[in-house]
């Protein structure tokens, strides 16, 4: 349209070259007015398409029982949720499955593990998840329980001791996977009995609590070095005319086969959740796709394309700003962002690592500049309690980042890309 109008302008000028200057100038002004009118009448989103609904932004934080005591006392938990609401956060992700135990009273866990609840003293006689849901909703917080450990468990856990047949291993038979200084083992996500146990835990929560969604992460996959247990090898042979899986755990076909099996299970879990509660958001908080797929066999890009994920919070825990920004620009991130709300997980600190508030503010701005659905912080304690900066200064800074209240960008309640 612009080209046509410019050509018309040139024609007018030429055609009036030998006419009076007044008429020529009048024609130019008239044509330019037409151009301006057309430009102003174009829809604003044709010039700059908004990828986030006005007034909606995810402002979340993960609540964990690792290096944190926020969950271990009812009054402390209540005050923490109130403070988050006062600072205009709108979403919390309380861990519900960690260290081989549930953090809520679970009949499924009681049967499988022999304990219905994590034995930590601060959790006894309480229903932690019920407290978070009730107080969280009172404070206008969206509550999305988080399956933090997924298929992972401590090597010395009751779960591992009671069900050694559930565990998978490397090609040399070793089961232990180091996570920092901790010895971990992994349940095989390919075994029907393991699948039933994890799915029963998930459905139990969806049935019994007024939650807004449920969240998984890379631990809903499997370290790619594992998968050489007898059951998985026999299943692979059955589907490959007796051939054994590659001795190279990074072999593309062997990686793909296991990742596709996990995707099949994700579909099964998604269906089970929706059968119980249609409006329960299925959220995933993975690492970037290449790492998630190659190291954890968790193909969230495929999950998103298949419609098995309704909300993504991509963990980009990077200090280098250039690396952080580059992770926001990958094609699979942009593609997902055009379909569903995609937010960015930002590291606010760890027990032995204080993140400056300036870095947090800059990363939030980079996310907003690219119209993501919002941000979530890992983890609650490092927002202001374990930092080199003063707690009050940190809280004031978060108040500046979130100066007013806003809604959670929920796909199921009218969110549109």
Can you offer a commentary on this structure?
This protein is an alpha/beta fold. It folds into 2 domains: 2-42; 58-411, Alpha-Beta Barrel (TIM Barrel), CATH 3.20.20.80. 44% of the residues lie in helices and 14% in strands. It is built from 17 helices and 15 strands. The strands form 4 sheets. Strands 5-2-1-15-12-11-10-9 form an 8-stranded parallel beta sheet. A 3-stranded antiparallel beta sheet has the order 6-8-7, with no helix packed on it. It has a two-stranded antiparallel ribbon with strand order 3-4. A hairpin with a 2-residue loop joins strand 13 (349-350) and strand 14 (353-354). Helix 1 runs antiparallel to helix 2 (21-41), helix 4 packs parallel to helix 6 (128-138) and helix 13 (321-328) packs parallel to helix 15 (357-369). The model is unreliable at 1-53 (pLDDT under 50).
């Amino acid at each position: 349209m612009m080209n046509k109008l410019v050509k018309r302008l040139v024609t007018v000028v030429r055609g009036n070259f030998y006419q009076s200057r007044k008429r020529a100038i009048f024609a130019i002004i008239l044509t330019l007015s037409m151009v301006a009118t057309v430009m102003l009448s174009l829809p604003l989103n044709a010039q700059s398409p908004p990828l986030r609904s006005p007034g909606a932004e995810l402002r979340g934080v993960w609540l964990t029982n690792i290096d944190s005591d926020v969950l271990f006392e009812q009054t402390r938990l209540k005050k923490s949720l109130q403070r988050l609401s006062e600072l205009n956060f709108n979403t919390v992700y309380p861990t519900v499955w960690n260290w081989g135990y549930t953090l809520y009273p679970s009949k499924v866990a009681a049967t499988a593990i022999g304990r219905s609840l994590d034995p930590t003293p601060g959790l006894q006689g309480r229903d932690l998840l019920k407290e978070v849901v009730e107080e969280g909703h009172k404070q206008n917080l969206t509550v999305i329980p988080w399956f933090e450990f997924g298929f992972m468990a401590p090597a010395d856990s009751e779960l591992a001791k009671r069900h050694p047949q559930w565990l998978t291993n490397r090609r040399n038979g070793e089961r232990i996977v180091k996570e920092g200084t901790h010895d971990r083992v992994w349940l095989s996500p390919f075994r029907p009995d393991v699948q039933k146990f994890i799915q029963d835990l998930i459905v139990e929560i969806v049935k019994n609590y007024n939650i807004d969604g449920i969240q998984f992460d890379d631990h809903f996959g499997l370290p790619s070095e594992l998968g050489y247990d007898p059951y998985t090898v026999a299943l692979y042979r059955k589907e490959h005319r007796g051939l054994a899986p590659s001795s190279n755990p990074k072999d593309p076909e062997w990686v793909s086969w296991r990742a596709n099996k996990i995707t099949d299970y994700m579909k099964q879990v998604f269906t089970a959740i929706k059968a119980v509660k249609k409006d329960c958001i299925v959220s995933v908080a993975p690492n970037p796709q290449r790492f998630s797929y190659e190291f954890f066999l968790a193909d969230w890009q495929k999950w998103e394309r298949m419609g098995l994920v309704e909300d993504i919070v991509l963990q980009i825990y990077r200090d280098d700003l250039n690396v952080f920004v580059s992770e926001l620009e990958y094609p699979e991130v942009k593609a997902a962002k055009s379909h569903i709300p995609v937010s960015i997980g930002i590291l606010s600190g760890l027990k032995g690592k204080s993140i400056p508030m300036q870095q947090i503010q800059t990363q939030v701005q980079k996310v907003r500049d690219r119209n993501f659905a919002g941000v979530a912080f890992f983890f609650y304690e490092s927002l202001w309690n374990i930092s080199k900066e003063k707690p009050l200064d940190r809280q004031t800074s978060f108040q500046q980042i979130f100066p007013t209240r806003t809604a959670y960008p929920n796909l199921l309640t009218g969110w549109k890309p």
